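Recap from last week: sequence in, structure out.
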Amino acid sequence: MIRLGAYRPGSDPKTDEAMRYYPLIEQFLAQGKRERGDLVQGYYQLADILNSGGVG
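Predicted structure tokens:
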């Protein structure tokens, strides 16, 4: 619905919230082939994203 342009912001608060988080979560999940991640640091980064309210 969103990609088709059929979703109207404000129609569903949970969908609106997910749309705010989407770019930050996508960025968080992106990792280069040779990039290493630390599990604990990853938890902190994810917590920062979730605590930001999807703004960042």
